[in-house]
Automatic annotation (TrEMBL):
Alphabetical list of PANTHER family matching this protein: ATP-DEPENDENT 6-PHOSPHOFRUCTOKINASE (PTHR13697:SF4), PHOSPHOFRUCTOKINASE (PTHR13697)
Region feature (N-terminal catalytic PFK domain 1): 1-490
Name of the protein described by the UniProt record: ATP-dependent 6-phosphofructokinase
Low complexity bias (residue ranges): 60-79
Gene, per the UniProt record: PFK1
InterPro entries: 6-Pfructokinase_euk, ATP_PFK, Phosphofructokinase_CS, Phosphofructokinase_dom, PKF_sf
Amino acid sequence: APHKKHPRQRKIAVLTSGGDSAGMNAAVRAVVREGIARGCQAYIIREGWEGLVRGNAVDPTPAASRRASTAPSPAIRPTWNSQLTGLPDLNLDAVEEPHAVNYWDPNDIAPLSDAPLSFGYGGLLRDGAGEGDADELAAALAGHIPAVPEEEEEGGRTLKGRYIVRVGWDDVRGWLGEGGTLIGSSRCPSFRTREGRLRAARNLITFGIDCLAVCGGDGSLTGADMLRAEWPSLIAELHGNNHIDDEQLEAYRYLNIVGLVGSIDNDMSMTDLTIGAVTALHRICEAVDSISSTASSHSRAFVIEVMGRHCGWLALMAGVATGADYIFIPERPPAGDDWESEMCDVLKQHRLVGKRKSIVIVAEGAIDKNLQPIKGDYVKQVLVDRLGLDTRVTTLGHTQRGGSPAAYDRILPTLQGVKAVEALLEATPETPSYMIGIAENRITKVPLLEAVAQTQAVADAIAAKDFPKAMGYRDSEFKDMLAAFHISSSLSSADIVPEDQRLRVGIIHVGAPAGGMNAATRQAVRYCHSRGHVPLGIYNGFDGLLEDNVSELSWLRVDNWTTRGGSELGTNRTLPSIDMGQIAAALQRHSIDALLLVGGFEAFNSVLMLEKARKDYPSLHIPMIHLPATLSNNVPLTDFSLGSDTSLNALVQACDAIKQSASASRNRVFIVETQGGMSGYIAVLGALAVGAVLVYTPEEGISLSRLQEDVEFLKERYGLDEKGKSEGRLVIKSEKSSSVYSTDLITKVLKEEGKDIFDSRSAALGHTLQGGTPSPQDRTRAARLALLSMQFLEKHATPNAQAYHPRKKQMPARTETAAMIAIRGSKIVYATMDEVMRHTDMKLRRGTDVWWSGVKHLVEVMGGRAGVIAQM
Ligand code: ATP
């Protein structure tokens, strides 16, 4: 692409608005760092739209001069050029941004302007109370807003009431692990008025900001779209009033806006997940898991209210992940008129088979089919009156918002923040404003207006009682999950197939244990029960099969398995090649008509072998499917395997603790060693999630020159830290990244080279990475994939496949009946063994192509290494 010279350095501002959500800080950090990396100046706007409307009490002359002492020597100033970013340089004339500078004095956080937020309405509104009507507001605004006091002196270091603040690379240090939003958020009624937006526009121009990233819910993003749509008329008015001059009018003709969806409800259309939803789900599952044990002890029922006004995502996912008995969500109200009886029937049946606890999850916006709200207290009353259950209501409330972000809510906002900056810099007057989303596993860019409109359409459809339409807007995952929930929580005989179509389905775990294996098994067992098939648990892998360690799994037996880590069936690395003839005989002996294998690379290898051996053994002519489960995520073809999310979360927790310790001693580099076989997935994604400065993977290996560069980088980096304010830094190393440069060796090298600048230590996470309790995502993913796996087996199986009939001709099973269920981008596919093999490196036991291959570079950009090394 030809180098296009921009007339001035771009200035990117970021704000967070509406209800806070975990991961907003990660989004801000990514926008700031990627912005700086691409040669822009970065700004934060505090307190959401409110801060933009208010602007600063003083003229925005660069505060940078205040900290000139920390400016690095010219030698290590990175030039963020096209070579590095792949984008044309935008600031050929501009001063480069040094990458270790604080512009923002943290003392500046507390003493905001004394005036209450939300003019005329007091600070009350910060909690999201009603925002009053627009006319009233306009009147209040006209009277209350002072003119921007441009000439006011900058009084000393601490400026009161600076809402728009330039930030440097190090201002956003350590933000990945912080919950909520550090730059503040609010509800801003004045932004709903044209007067408010006019002031916002004026402030943007005063600061020279032409790119704005907004992280918030649908309301905040509607506001963003409004601002962009009105922009031409706003600047015309400002020009007319002589608030901006001709030059400014020309220079700020276009405003580029991008939306990032921060919302715990996951209520935005056109994106699978919003920033913060996964963390909220973590909090809910933790709560429900704890409640479950007390419920069981006292044989109680609990009604748990979770957030979600127009979206039942949290309630549904929590229902699937915790194995709840019943859920209520807005987009799919109970079908019948008498939902009370329906619910009681289900819970009663569960009690009759021996369950000691009952869990009902109610979304905040749950309704019946006549739009009457369904509330926790009423549900409780019904359970007490009709079933005589000792019932309690727990409203989880704000605990759902809080806390340290889950791994996913660090990775997603980082990837999205980077994409947001890209969208801003690529925007032209013709392009619409975009919202950054995610579809299955790809970061997407969709027209903001369309996403907001579609979100509104869901609410409208619900209001119009058109529930199928509301469901129609939900993605396929949502629909699969709903089906999985109903199947796993139902004891009804409605879907049972005639006797001659019933199957005996073997379920086996192969390889190392991984989070979600048990949840998958539970779903498969429940599926069998709902259809009248017989689920057979094969204990201790293929060894167990040889010893006839096979027995039927009852509905109740698997009840608590969603939350259990490890492998309840028992698992090991034995492959069927240990004795193929005996394996085939055992399958025949137990009359197994179909086989579900849950596990990692060994499970894949097993299916491969079994399929090959079909030519020799008729009993192997049964459908078999591999459901990938391994923390390494090294199974070819699939984007994710069960267990990898649990493992990432275990890594994040461990690294947060390690980083704290490393920071306490001010200048310590920790080399953290991870498992993962020959795949660097856990290391790379983990490094992105914890903000490691370096990552070593088996894919890339380690060389002497690379190690030398890294030492130089660390020296430069520690050299830039303010005296006495250095922090701990993390290096993540995959255990198999080099057989020569061991963790121990690297630690010693760093110690030796760091001298009195930095020190080093190491920690090996080992088996802790298998994680205790599986993460909610692994549990829900397990349920969905197990459901689809069972449907696959059912489709291809023949009942009584192993029975011997003298006249029966052996029907050879087609190759596509031995498959792997894989998540591929936006699709779930059933891949044949041939297809999987085409993507497999058998020697290195991993796929030949992975979706995350570009992420390693991103770790280096976000850690600042890419810039420094590019200079050398
Ligand atoms: P949450 O998911 O927590 O509800 P949200 O972004 O939807 O987040 P809202 O309170 O709806 O939260 O909106 C936040 C702010 O966005 C409002 O206080 C207001 O300043 C601005 N905003 C919302 N809707 C509009 C609109 N239609 N026009 C202009 N600004 C708006």
